[in-house]
Amino acid sequence: MPAFTAVAPAKIILFGEHAVVYGMPAIAVPVPVLQARVIIRADVHGEHGSVHLTAPAIALDSELLELNPNHPLRKAVELTAQYLHAAYIPACQITIHSTIPVAAGMGSGAAVSVALMRALAAYLGHPLSPEILSELAYEVEKIHHGNPSGIDNTVIALEQAVYFVRGQPAQPIQICQPFQLVIADSGISSSTAQVVAEVRAAWQTNPNQYETFFKQIAQISTNARRLLESVSKTEPIQPAFLQELGLLMSENQALLVDLGVSCLEIDRLVQAALNSGAYGAKLSGGGKGGNMIALVDDESREAVCLTLKEAGAGRVIVTTIGRRKDNLHR
Ligand code: PMV
Prior knowledge:
Elements: E1 3-15, E2 26-42, E3 51-55, E4 60-63, H1 72-83, E5 92-98, H2 108-123, H3 130-145, H4 151-158, E6 162-164, E7 171-172, E8 179-185, H5 192-205, H6 207-229, H7 239-259, H8 264-275, E9 280-284, E10 291-296, H9 301-310, E11 316-321
The structure holds (3R)-3-hydroxy-3-methyl-5-(phosphonooxy)pentanoic acid.
């Protein structure tokens, strides 16, 4: 029986998290070394409409209709079927795998939604464009996050570095020369919805101060975009570029600390990365745990990875930003 398989990458936010919720620009990039993968097999003996879902990593083994109507996986399936005007889904078995850590600021929920919707649309005979997948996945993001900016579903569905402003079409960024990031997990799981709500409460108490922070972060995202787009297609990356990009990352981290979304463990990892030669470092995503990122080159990479592990990081991975998206294992 043919199987329909679809994948979607993890993501990190390079610049602008939290401020993006308030209409400021942010920059996010896909991280294809981590991915969600969904396999759909037709069940020729099953009744029409019988959809069985398994997700071994979260011990889920259930009929679709036995899930709560607001369950993100059920919502993803139903939104796709509705969008395609499918009267019913031919009986099938859906299996979901993901190597993306959950509640770690890497877009695991959005990646599962996009991979699931992509596989289901193919199974139903109507593949969907990245833009439509992003719009549908945004509806599921609302269940996960309450008030999401939409950056996660956008960068994950487009599989492309984006400069993102809430409510506007995403603007792809061409990264002409690849550069390397270390992504280190603080080991602390954190609810983005909760941290976003805390920032909202703080903004309501102190709007002038928080709006100043948001504007300063916006300026960093704008400068970072200009810098990323200034890289020559033909010349290798220059140290001055890495120094400038790293400085912007560290400035962004200082403002995230001011917003109150960092934490001791992240601060320790950021400092460890800088002490061992990273050009810049910051948290990525909702904060108060999750992952941090550090900008490195061939010389500093090993030392930064080692130091981060010594400083208590869990999973430490190196990823290359700006490489062609064919490193997504389809
Ligand atoms: O924690 P993540 O990976 O879902 O990233 C959240 C980014 C925020 O800006 C904090 C929230 C949002 O909706 O943009």
